[in-house]
Amino acid sequence: MKILKSHVLSAVCLSFICAPFVNSQNANALDAKPVVIDRGFGEVLSANLTGSYAVKIGDSKMAARAFELAWLNDRGNYNAFKNSIKAYLIAGDLDKALKLAKMGNQKLRGSDADLVIANDEFKKGNLKPILAYENYVELSEARALYARHLKAWALALSGDKTGAIDAIAQKSGIRNIDKNAYFSRAIMLQFLGDDEGAKSAYETAYGLGGRTIIGVTNYARFLAQTGHKDDALDILRATDNVSDVIVLNDVYDEIKNSSKVSKPNGKNMASLALANIAQSIAYDNKSGSPLGELAMSLALNKDLQIIRIDIARFQNALELEDDANTQLANIDKNSVYGDIASSINSALLYPKNEKAAIENLQKSAKNRPNFFNLSSLANYYVASEKFKDAQLLYDKLIEQSKGLSEQAMGTKKWQLYFGRSNAFTGLKNPQAAIKDLRAANDLEPDNPLLLNSLGYILADNNVELDEARKLLEKAVQMRPQSGETIDSLGWLMFRQGDYEAAIDRLEFAMMLSPNVGEIAEHLGDAYWTTNRKEEAKLEWSKAVSLTKSSDDKARITAKMLKGIDIPAAKAIVAQSQ
Questions:
Q1: Is 50 within the bounds of a domain?
Q2: Fewer Cβ within 10 Å of end Cβ, the chain: N or C?
Q3: What is the DSSP string of 506-569?
Q4: For residue 65, which of 43, 42, 88 has the smallest C-alpha distance?
């Protein structure tokens, strides 16, 4: 594939696989007035029907408002009440969930409502509601784990060490969450003064692959606090978390430059442990929306900016742009979290206003000219086809990176070479692009993105086709459902004259990625070359509608009018063999 914005901007934001109850684009309007689909059944029934409909289409805000309206008009309808609380938590609107929960009858309000009330009381120092909490059955596995850990901390803070350890030892049954939950257990054991137990729990979490930012950074701080500063720095150097490497580096510098790392107090340790559970849920893409747990943990400690970042990322993915911007507005702009917030802001702006998105990053890069901000800006230059600006900025970054560790840079060196290769591709300088892609592949072997990019550009320029085929076959093996990667292999087969096999691959690629114009263009070329001219024109027409670049549109439109020169195409194939 050529330059794809999904590849160019991949380093800017985490991409989560969003579970059901995704928000629709029109949901922000619902804050002002509930939307009810009236079918003549009366307001209460219509509101319930609207809520059920909203659940099916994945609009959590519409569902919450509709179910709330149904309950307000019929206070005996506790199914609507419970559904509204659940939907507000899925949308991450803890304030509305809490306000509604407090209006309900204590005996009838249900486990979600009781949990948000208990969380609020815990924040105020009142442990009784969560100490009395027992109804985990109605909760999802992930939320039940949060509730159990909240209760464990109430037990610990009230002096019941045995009860706290028993409560925190229970698991959710979801492997990805449970492995990271060992970090929270370690923080609890730290609080209880069991450093050996804490060390074992931290090692278990990390050994199982636990990589929440809160968990890893607290592990490093624990090691530094207990006299193992070098081990702490090694952990931070070794942890691979592309999206938040800048946070790991910030903690690295903090520990490296401090003679002593202080231990947080009990209340802060509780908030960190519970925030780690929320992050554990966020890191598991099969457990549903984590926004309720993230919001509850943030309520316990408003200074947890990494949780604000996680919330904003999910709200961005769920198209809750106003909500995401509200979170980002509360981030310290002169911090690493401000750098991440700026990148998310630009991701929100970019689809509607490329210029504003780039100006936002330019401002951040001027204010804090670190590798993260400058490389993010360079990425956006490429995505906006400002290829010369991108190349010059990457030149500067690559020169500055010489002699520096990736830890010191806060970014991966291969990403710099990959980014500049995209700039060179846009500047029609394939030789320079190939050189940079080889450098990137040397730094990051067996990365399917890089294998695909190098294989494609070799194929597209009819050079080293045997090498290109090996690269692309390996990339496809690693990503068998990637339409872009399969397209690259299909295009190589076309270049080698294996037209039927090429069409087979390109059709499969089009099925996997139906909205990528370049795949449609390639498929059209293959159809035309095999005398399937009407099908070719349909694919080229589709490609024109999916392509943004005016130059690309003109080239493809010319194919629709005149076709392509089959003898010339086959001569290129013969030349490459």
A1: no
A2: C
A3: HHHHHHH-TT-HHHHHHHHHHHHHTT-HHHHHHHHHHHHHH---HHHHHHHHHHHHH---HHHH
A4: 88
Q: Which of 245, 264, 287 is the last residue of a domain?
A: 287
Three-state DSSP state, 498: coil
Contact 437, 418 (CB under 8 A): yes
User: Tell me: the pLDDT tens digits for 334-363?
Assistant: 999 999 999 999 988 988 899 999 999 999
Burial class (CB in 10 A: 0-12, 13-18, 19+), 154: buried
Residue 246 lies in a domain: yes
Q: Per-residue confidence at 241, pLDDT binned at 50, 70, 90?
A: low
pLDDT number for residue 54:
79
Question: d(Cα 112, Cα 105) in Å, to the nearest integer?
Answer: 13
127 has pLDDT over 90: yes
The total domain count for the chain is 2
Q: Which of 238, 259, 287 is the last residue of a domain?
A: 287
pTM: 0.79
Supply the angle between the helices 483-495 and 517-529 in degrees, to the nearest 10: 30
**pLDDT tens digits for range 174-203:** 999 999 999 999 999 999 999 999 999 999
393 vs 420: CA distance, rounded Å: 9
Asked if the structure places residue 520 within a domain, the reply is yes
The whole-angstrom separation of Cα 176 and Cα 55 is 26
Query: Per-residue pLDDT averaged across 462-487, rounded?
Result: 92
Count CB-CB contacts under 10 A for residue 395: 14
Cβ within 8 Å of residue 302, ≥6 positions away? none
Determine the structural domain holding residue 270 and report its residue range: 110-287
Say if residue 303 is exposed, middle or buried (CB neighbours under 10 Å; 0-12, 13-18, 19+): exposed
**pLDDT for residue 57:** 79
